[in-house]
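Protocol step 6 of 9: fold each sequence in the batch and record its C-alpha cells directly after the sequence line. For illustration, a two-sequence batch is reproduced in full.

Sequence one:
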Amino acid sequence: MERPSALDGHTRLPAAVLWDMDGTLVDSEKLWDIALHDLAAHLGGTLSSAARKAMIGANMSATLVLLFADLGLPAEPDALARAGDSVSYTHERALRAVRAAGLPTALVTSTERALTEIALDRIGREFFDVTVCGDEVDGRNKPHPEPYLRAARLLGVRPDDCVAVEDSPTGTQAAVAAGATVLVVPCEVDVPPGERRVIRESLVGLDVAELGRLLTAEAA
C-alpha cells in the first residue's frame, strides 16, 4: 500500500521522521514522564506538575502512591499493582504512531555504533528503517548537518521534507542546517527559538497529525 502524502487536503505528512537518541529517546525521566501522564489519563485524571516534580528520583511504589493521591484515588494494593503493570513501556507510543502511519524513520545519534546497538535493544530496533551513528559520518558529527543528510540519503528522501525530533542545541543546529523541520523537546539544556523549530515540553501525546501540521506550517 502506498503511504499517503497528506492527512487531509491541507496537512502533508513528513517524508520521514528522524529521531535523535540520547536525551530524546534514551532519557529515563523524560520517558517516564510519558508513561505517568498516560497512566493518569487512563485512570481518568491529569497528573499535576507539583506531583510529577515530587516523583523525580522516587521508586515505583512511592511514585504510584503519589500519583493515586494526586488523582484522589484510594491507593489499594491491587490497583497499585495493575497500575505498575500498565507502565511497562515509555517512548513506544510516539514511535508506534509514526510506524503505524507508514512513515520512514531513522535514528540519528552521535553515539558510536557499538553502544547504539545496545541501546537499540532497549528502544526497539524495529521502529527504525536506518540508523546513523557518530562513527559513521567521517568525523562530521552534530552540529554538522552530515548525520541528518546521511539519514535522508539512506532513506531516499529530501531533508527539507523531514521532521527531526531533537533535545539539544547541538542536535537542533545539525537538523536545521540539513534543512529539516525540528520538533525540539529540551532535556538538560534549553534550546533557543529560531528558524524551522517548534519547542514542545515532552513527547506526551505526540502523534502523526502534529508532525504533519508542524511541517505544513513551516512550508507555508
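Sequence two, same batch, same settings:
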Amino acid sequence: MVANIFSSNDMSLGQKFFQINWFLVLLITLMASIGFVMLYSAANGSLSPWADKQMIRFAVGFVMMCIIAVVDIRLWLRYAYILYFLALLMLVSVEFFGTVGQGAQRWLVLGSLKLQPSEIMKIGVVLALAKYFHCLKEDDVERITRLFIPLLLVAMPVVLVLKQPDLGTAGLILLSSLAVFFAAGVPIKYFVLVGLGGLAAIPVGWQFLREYQQKRVLTFFDPEQDPLGSGYHIIQSKIALGSGGLFGKGLLNGSQSHLNFLPEKQTDFIFTMLGEEFGLFGALIILGLYMLVMIYGYGIGLRVRNHFGRMLVTGVMTTFFLYFFINMAMVMGLFPVVGVPLPLIS
C-alpha cells in the first residue's frame, strides 16, 4: 500500500507514514464506504447487524494497514518463514480444534476472537515464496529441482484447506502462488506442464469432490436443471442483475433482495444487490474502483527495487484481483458458485 517504502528502508517512521500512497488509501476507503451503504441496504435500512460491524472491522483493518505500511520490509523478509509456519500451524489446529459452521470446519475460536486461518495463509504463502525466490540465485530459478521446496510450501496449505473442505480458498492460494512463481522468473514451460497436468487430473479430481461441490459445477453449465435447489442462487442473481437496468431501482428498492428472493445478499451476492439497486452504472463504478486499485498496486510493484518486495506485491495484488474477479464472475453465471466474498464490500 506504499509507494516508496520499499525503495528507502532507512527513513524514519514519520517519513514512511507521509510516503504512504494516500490516493490509494482514499480509493480503498471509498470502496469500503460503498460496502457500508450496501450492508445498510441489505438490513432494510439499518446499520445492525452488518454495517456497524463492518465499520468496526474496517477501522481496525485501517490501523493495521498503516502499521504494516511503515514496517521495514527487511523485517517481513526476516520473519517470512516464521509467519508462514504459524499460519500452517493454525491450519493444522483447525483439524483438531476447529469450529464447524455450514458443514465445514474452517474456524478457530480464541476467546471472543474467531479466526479463519486459511485467510491468513493466503498472505503467509506469498511471504514464504517471495523469501525463497529472493534468496535463490537467478540461474537456479530455471532448475526444476529448485522448485520442489516452493511447491511443497504451496501443497501443504492447499491440501489442508481442501480437507476443511474449502475448494474456493484452496484455488485462491494456488493461483496466487502461481503469480509469485511467474514474478520470480520461473520458465513458462513449467507453467504449461502444470496446466496440462491439471487438465489431465480433472477426471481423477472429480471423484474427490464432495457431492455439493459437484452439483455446483454441474449447475454452472445448466442452472435450470435444479431451479429450486442448487441452481436457485444463480438464477435469482441473474434476475436481480437484469432487473437493475442501466441506473437501477434505487437504494432500498431492490425487489429481489428485499423480498428475500436473493440469498446471501450481505455476503457472496452483494454485488448482485448493488447491480439491482444502482444498475449497470453502479456496477461499472465499483469495477472501475477495483481496476484503479489494481493499477496503483501493480504500479507500486513495478517500482520496487528489490526482488522480495516485487514478488510480495505481485502475490498480494493477485490475491485481491482473484477475489473480486471470481466473485463478480460467479454472480453473473460466468463461474461456478464458490464461497468467495467481494473484498471491502461484502
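Proceed to step 7 once all outputs are recorded. Observation for sequence two: Confidence is low (pLDDT under 50) at residues 1-8.
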